[in-house]
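[agent] plan:
  1. take the single chain provided in the ticket
  2. run structure prediction with default settings
  3. attach structure tokens to the ticket
  4. add a short note for the reviewer (M.T.)
[agent] executing step 1
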Amino acid sequence: MADVNRGNRPLSPHLTIYRPQLTSMTSILTRITGNAMLIAALMIVWWFLAAASSEDYFNIANGFVTSWFGDLVMFFSVLGLWYHTLAGVRHLIWDNGIGLDIPTAEKLGWACIGGSVLLTLITVVAVA
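[agent] step 2 finished; step 3 output follows
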């Protein structure tokens, strides 16, 4: 049987001594943006279903989607979509064995963040 008395030793590196790298944070952000875009997708599907149902139901859904909260959700969905796309391109670059050294990986991480913000602003301005 395993010894359950391990003393005061930590089982893994403690948060006070571990410093997350940019690549790990961008990887986590990729997963978060992928899941968050599901909320916007469900909101868009609800809007389409309401449009196919009745005018009264569509007015309710359209009022929500075009409200300040709906606009905020859609704005961050565009940001998440661009970030998720650029992070996917970064992973395709890494899959080819390019840019795996730490300085280049950090530059690619900052490029994903900055590029997604820039492309989001361009998208919002172009649509508005």
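[agent] step 4 note for reviewer: The mean pLDDT is 90.
[agent] ticket updated
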